[in-house]
User: Fold this.
Amino acid sequence: MAISASAITPQNSLEEFRIQFNNLVEDVEGVSGGNTFTQTIVFEGATADAYETTVLATDPTADRTITLPNATGTVITTGNSDTPTTTTSSGDADFVLVDDGGTLKKITPTNLGITGATAADDIGAGDAAVNFTTTTGNITIDAQAGDADIIFKGTDDTSDITALTLDMSEAGKAIFNGAITSGAVITSGAGLLIADAGTIGSASDTDAMAISSGGVVSFSATTEASATGTAAVTVAGGLGVAKDIWVGDDLTLDSDAAVISFGDDQDVTLTHVADTGILLNSTMVIQFNDASQNIGAPTNAILDINATDEIELNATLADVNANLDVSGTYTGGGLMTTGGNIVIPDAGNIGSASDTDAIAISSGGVVNFTQAPTVASAAIKTAGLETIWVPASAMYPCTSNGCSALTQVETTANQPEMKVLDFDKDSDEFAQFTVAFPKSWNAGTVTFRAFWFGLASTDGVAWALQGRGVADNAESVGAFGTAVVVQDDSQSDATEVLISATSSAVTIANAADDTLTFFQIYRDVSDANDDMAGDARLAGIQIFYTTSAATDA
Assistant:
């Protein structure tokens, strides 16, 4: 029902008043007739114009009642909901209107649970998906209690699981219950921990890398290495390893001039020389067993092989294309064949293991044998010590102060008889003989031994020998050289052969090759050892001389 009457002011005419009064009467009669409007109520407002406020009722399907409260206020509609003063605090709200089964009721924000921030432990379980969305700023989950973890739980099929735990006692360490699958790079500000014996891999090879509880890292791939980029494990940059490296198969340094360095300051290196070999740096050595056993190059022209005892070469043939300079002893266990000469150092030796100096060669080429040499197991005569036997029968008493003439004494019939020269006990008596030494004689000193017979006593005798050499066409008159005495003692048997010790060296006056040497022998009764009270019978003397040549050629 529309209200047709309009407001009347004192300026209106009486006719206008009559018309509006009649309209008002009709309007009042319509309201009093049952307070029923067909669809709308129209309010003109303070100004009669083309604009009115209409209260419109939707065609009801049942009786409806709208109650206006007994209070002064403003009705809020969808058209003026933004008109009141805006507040950002839920604490400013006294009541909140709620629909309680079709009845409009009020409730305080506290009872509704919207006063200030809602405690997280007051949020109940929902029955649908939940989204946390913000158009600006961060979304922060803060477990403020000391070491309180942030735990993400869920249900795997029908089993409740803890999918992720952020361990606040370990600075937020993330502990995942299952595998981590990432479509992008995973970046960690600290460490990245997996379970003991856990694996890290790709979508196609999930266990490519495994880490044991002890931290041992293993790779499952078995790809053979054929280049620096083709292998089970490849590293684009350098590789540093603090401990030992064990390689189960081949090790390849895949670059020319590759270097293996040793030591804390890399002072020893092995360098690959392309198509040639490997090079040990500087004057370094390769040692074997201990520091004294080594191979090295002290200069760029010398290679040293050093050992404290022995260097052994085992081969069917050792071919040495160089001069061989051996400063020590050479010992050969087999036949040594040479296509050239064998030269030893001046005054060097050649020998056997048991007699290393059996052959000595002087700087002048003189060869000396320390043992008697043989040819075909037969002894050969060599230069050296020789002897001459001079019997009493080859001697003659001196004209002045001579000994007795040669006497032959029978011991027992048809047994050895003594042919002797007797020398008196009271004065020196002399005998002489001559020797033409061989040309091989070195013209040096000689020694001698006296062969004689004594009395049936233990007294002593002193025999003296002196000599003089006379050359061809030389005068024989002249003094002998200094006499040398040798002492001996009788052994209480007149027929016993007595042989003296070898005398000291006898110097022959004018000794030389191709001379006739005169010798004079005598009994030196003035010697302290000569105290035998009777004649001393000389059977002969043995002269020792030295040759310096193998023959008299």
The chain is about 5% helix and 30% strand. The mean pLDDT is 85.
